[in-house]
Amino acid sequence: THSTHNTMSHTTNSKAPKTGITCDTAEESTCSSLTSPLNKTIQMNKAHERHDSTHKASKMRLALKDMLFHHDGDSRVSVEELHEREPSVVPKRGEAAKSATEEYVPSTETLDKIRSKKAFILDADGTLYVTTMNGGNRLLEGTKLFFEWATKNDKEILILTNSSKSTDVALQAKFKRLLGFELPLEHFITSAESTALFLSKQSPGAKCFVLGEEGLFYYLKKYGLHVLNPREGQQEDPSEAEYVVMGESRAYRYEDLALAINLVNTGSRFLATNTDVVDIDENGNLDPSTGSFTSIIEAATGISPYCCGKPSVLIMQFALEKLKSSKEDTVMIGDRMDTDILASTEANLDNVLVLSGVSEYSKLHRFPYKPRFILRSLNDLVKDVQ
Predict the structure, then answer these.
(1) 166 contacts 215 by C-beta, under 8 angstroms
(2) Which tens digits make up the pLDDT trace of 220-233?
(3) Taking burial as the number of CB atoms within 10 A of a residue's CB, which of 86, 133, 199, 291 is the most buried?
C-alpha cells in the first residue's frame, strides 16, 4: 500500500524585495554606482552571513563525524560496573566515562553467558576488522582466536554485513585473506541477500529497477527476481518495474535517480537494502551511503523505502533461518547501537556491544535502548579460553 503523493504547485513571485532603492534592469549599472556605499555594506553583511553559515555547517559536520565515527579508546567500562548501575546500564548525561587504561577483567559469569550460546551473528567492520586509512582492512585483536574457538566448540557462525556491494564469493575471498583460512559461503549474509529473500517470498519473479552495485544485482538474480536495467542487457521497458530497489553505490547516474523518482511516484514499490546515511572512507572522511540517496527519492515523492537490512528485524529473522538456530541459543555481536543493537533488540535477541568500532561508551545515554552486554572487543571473550 502506498501513500498518496500530492503534487504541489509553486508560485513564483516576480516582485523584487523592497530594499529602499529600486533599479530598472537597463539602469542597473548606473544605479549601482550611485549607491555603491550601500551596496558595499550589503555585500559585506552577506559575506559575513555566508562565513557564519559555513562555519556553523563545518562545526555540525565535525560534530556528526565525532558522534558516529569516534575511534579513540578513552571510553571503556567494565560489564560489571555497567550492570551495577540502576535503572540503566549506560551512563547518565554528563557522567564521565571510565578510562581505557583502567584495567578490568569481565566476570566469569558474564563471559560464560555469552560463550554458552550455540550460534553467533557477527557484524563485520568494527567488530571483526577495521578499515585502514589506505582502504585496506586490519583484523581486530581476538578475531582469529574467536573463529578458532568457535570451530573447536562446534559453534555456528554467521557474518552479517549491512553493505550490499559484495557477493558471498567476494566476502569469502576477503576473509580468507584476513584469517588465512576459508569460511563456507553459508557463513555470510548481506543486506542485499535479505532484500532478495524478502522479494522472493513477497513477489516471486517480480520486475525490479535497481540502483546499486554487483552484490545487489547478484542476489536479486540468484533468487529469481527480474532485473529490468538496460545496462544489465534486458530489453524490457524499465517503466514496467514493480519495485525500485536501492543499495549503496559510488556510481549513481542522474538519469537513474530521475527514473527511480518517477517510477516510485507512479506506483512502483520502494525498497532499500539499508538506510545508513553515511559511512567512512579510506581517508577517514564521511562517505554518503544508501540513506543519503534514498532521501532524494523520498523528498521528491513523499514515499519512504522499506528497509530490508539492519536495523530491520527482517534480516535478523533471515539470519536465524540461515543458522537454523533459535533466538534463545543465539547472540548478536556488533559495534553500532543504531543498527546491530537496535535490530537485535527489536528481534528479542541477546546482544553484545563491542567498543572496538564506532560506538563510544560516554554517548550510550543518548539511546532509548541498551545492549545486554558490553565488551571492549571480541578478545575479551576468548583471550583466556584454551
Answers:
(1) yes
(2) 999 999 999 876 56
(3) 199
